[in-house]
Automatic annotation (TrEMBL):
The keyword DNA-binding does not apply. It catalyses: L-aspartate + 2-oxoglutarate = oxaloacetate + L-glutamate; (2S)-2-aminobutanoate + 2-oxoglutarate = 2-oxobutanoate + L-glutamate; L-cysteine + 2-oxoglutarate = 2-oxo-3-sulfanylpropanoate + L-glutamate; 3-sulfino-L-alanine + 2-oxoglutarate = 3-sulfinopyruvate + L-glutamate. The gene is GOT1. It comes from Chelonoidis abingdonii. It is found in: Cytoplasm. This is Aspartate aminotransferase. Its cofactor is pyridoxal 5'-phosphate. Homodimer. Residues 36-407 form the Aminotransferase class I/classII large domain. The keyword Cell inner membrane does not apply.
Amino acid sequence: ISAVPSQVGFPYSALPQVICPTLGYRQGPPPRRKTLLFSLAAYRTDEGQPWVLPVVKKVEQKIANDASLNHEYLPILGLPEFRANASRIVLGEDSRAIKENRVGGVQCLGGTGGLRIGAEFLRRWYNGTNNTATPVYISSPSWENHNSVFVNAGFKDIRAYRYWDAAKRGLDLEGLLEDMESAPEFSIFVLHACAHNPTGTDPTLEQWKQIAAVMKRRFLFPFFDSAYQGFASGCLDRDAWAVRYFVSEGFELFCAQSFSKNFGLYNERVGNLSVVGKDADNVQRVLSQMEKIVRTIWSNPPSQGARIVATTLTCPQLFAEWKDNVKTMADRVLLMRSELRARLQALGTPGTWNHITEQIGMFSFTGLNPKQVEYMIKEKHIYLMASGRINMCGLTTKNLDYVASSIHEAVTKFQ
Ligand SMILES: Cc1ncc(COP(=O)(O)O)c(C=O)c1O
């Protein structure tokens, strides 16, 4: 009688069980022992707590009291005032591309959504149709999800471009430019707009100009990932300089923007994919295809995060408050950097530590080797990434001494 088969035709027992490292404690509650978590990719206050930005609290109240709002579906491409203002934030008030009507936005599920939708579009329509063979270049190292996002979109040829020079603890500009020179024309390059994750090392303005010149000559496609606008320098405009420069140089490009960090809206999943095209007609055609892609992936986006961002960006007073909140976060990171460096230098920790203050944004590539990282985790219960990356927001005035002396011990014991 029962039509239910005893075997579902799928060998679940053969499925490998995986753990996503950055999502934290999947298998249960956090360990009871007192630990210091430096592997998270989120802001923390000096009390080690998540921070709801005061401007966000205010706007949430405003939204809650607005009787005209409801929970109807948003348009497939998202809230129009969010999309337009998100693009304006990254491209700038005076963007010629915006004035020329050749910018479009797609509201996405965080920065990841922007990358995924952009990658899907490129695989379908860039450099031929269904062009899975176009090489996609990702910096070495990079945010670990970049690779998988492009693989999941169907790209088969994911390559690394040189970025980090471990010996000098800085940018390997020569290697990067060589890799661009030798990349096949029309290759896609994923570029971190600012506050490179995980190295905290960005090209200087002069270096960005060199990068743009090679990319232009070699017909390479810039796909910017802007996950930390405002976090790097505390200034939104400065952190968007590279994207704006590329646009001013006439590039057609994508820029995936995340508002997870700079609005502290991690779980609202709010991001935007800015599309800069040659002309208005091109952009409209691209957006029509984006609509088709979004329809089958998340159908239409959630509203709360987009409302918060749009309300903030469209009101001069709230906008000013937000900029101030962003600066508060950036300044705390800067302070922790200088305090950590000062302590390491005062302890006489072997090696040079100027990179701690030269790097920017949430992350620092400490330069700790795998043995030193293991010591930090096992003996000191300071959890950092295997690469030696730490989230500077894990540092507080209360744990600075402990962290500095632990690094000192680790470096002294395992040189
Ligand atoms: C470089 C980079 N890109 C994108 C993202 C994704 O951001 P979101 O949480 O908005 O998807 C992150 C988050 O850590 C990131 O570091």
